Every structure is written in structure tokens, then in C-alpha cells.
Amino acid sequence: MKYYKEIILKDSRKCILRNATEQDAAAALENFILTHKQTDFLLSCPDEIKMTADDEAQYLKEKAVSENEIEIIAVIDEILIGTAGIECIGNRYKTRHRAEFGISIDEKYWGLGIGSALTEACIECAKKAGYVQLELNVVSGNESAVQLYKKFGFTEFGRNPRGFRSRSGGWQETVYMYLEL
Predict the structure, then answer these.
(1) What's the whole-number mean pLDDT along residues 104-117?
(2) Taking Cα atoms as reference points, which of 32, 40, 163 lies closest to residue 103?
(3) Which superfamily does 4-180 belong to?
(4) Measured in whole angstroms, how far is the alpha carbon of residue 54 from the centre of its chain?
(5) Which of 48, 100, 112, 119 has the smallest count of CB within 10 Å of its CB?
(6) Which residues, 6+ apart, have CB-to-CB distance to 29 below 8 Å?
């Protein structure tokens, strides 16, 4: 799946959103590790990330040729500052209508509209791929992310009070959300 869009951020800078390719592997991995160090709201702890640049290149190569999955990067002044993507939840008849959405952005670029732009891009790609439902999990304490998803029409359908175990503060409640496409 291919995606490309130029947007103007709240601070008037230009940001390019495009599908990631295997040539972006090193920068994407670096951003992945960085964003997981910056917040406790993402799925893994930084020391758990064992992926290599070669692993990331293979992952991005597969996404670049996929008809129903994508990894989109946000680039400002040739610096990769965020990623978002959609993945099929299952390839069997009963689940192939559903995709999972994930996003992470370098905290230096929060509040500029990149989260909204990446969310909108993934929703557009999910529709293009033929999904009828987009899903995500978000830590309930991540209020800005919860509000972002609600702004795009995501609806809460459940909570897990022990969804994540934080190394710094015990349990984190996760909120399950979905969007009908």
C-alpha cells in the first residue's frame, strides 16, 4: 500500500507523511527505541526491544508491498519523528475485517498536529484496504491520546485494569477502542 501527503504543522513547518520503506529501517528503529524511552504508555520497555536494523528493514519491506497493512512515517527536515501503522488482526474470515492501529511520536514534536495527521492517514488506509473496523488499546492515563481517538470517532468498548504492568508505577489500565469504517 502506498501513502504520501505533505502537511503544514501548527508551527508552520512542513511534515511529510509517507509509507516507510526498507531504506528507512535504521531511522525507524532509532525512533521506535527513542519513543519507548520517552513514555510509559507504549507496549514495550526500551530494554525489551531486540529488533535489529535488518529485522526492521525486512518488516518495512513487507509493509511496503502489502495490500492491507502499512507503516507510515512522519518526516520533518529529513528527520523521521514518528510512525503509525495498521496491521490485520487475522487472515481468517471471522477476523479479516479488523485491523489494529498503533502510533508513536518523538515527544519533541507533540502538540503540532502530527498525531491527528497520522491517525487520519491510517484511517484512510484502513478504509482503502477494505477493513470495516479499526481497533486500538490505549493506557487510560494517556488522556491526550484518548481524546485524539475520540475526536476521530473511536468508541470505548472495554477496559482492562491490569492491561500493562509499569516498572515505575504498578498497573496501568488499558482502554479498548474501535472505529467503524
Answers:
(1) 97
(2) 32
(3) Gcn5-related N-acetyltransferase (GNAT) (3.40.630.30)
(4) 20
(5) 48
(6) 51, 52, 53, 56
Strand pairing of 133-139 and 170-180?
antiparallel
pLDDT at residue 155 tops 90? yes
The per-residue b/e assignment along 91-123, b for 16 or more CB within 10 angstroms, e otherwise, is: eeeeeeebbbbbbbbbeebeebebbebbbbbbb
Torsion, Cα 48 74 108 59, to 10 degrees, reads 10
CA distance 122 to 95: 19
The whole-number pLDDT of residue 61 equals 96
Q: For 123-153, what is each residue's pLDDT tens digit?
A: 999 999 999 999 999 999 999 999 999 999 9
Report the pLDDT averaged over residues 27-38: 96
Average of per-residue pLDDT across 81-94: 96
Cell 472495554 belongs to which residue? Answer: 158
What does the mean pLDDT of the chain come to?
A: 96
Q: Which residues contact 4 (CB under 8 A, 6 or more apart)?
A: 16, 17, 18, 19
Tell me the mean pLDDT in the region 82-108. 97
- Identify the CA nearest to 157 among candidates 171, 181, 174, 143: 174
3-state secondary structure of 55: helix
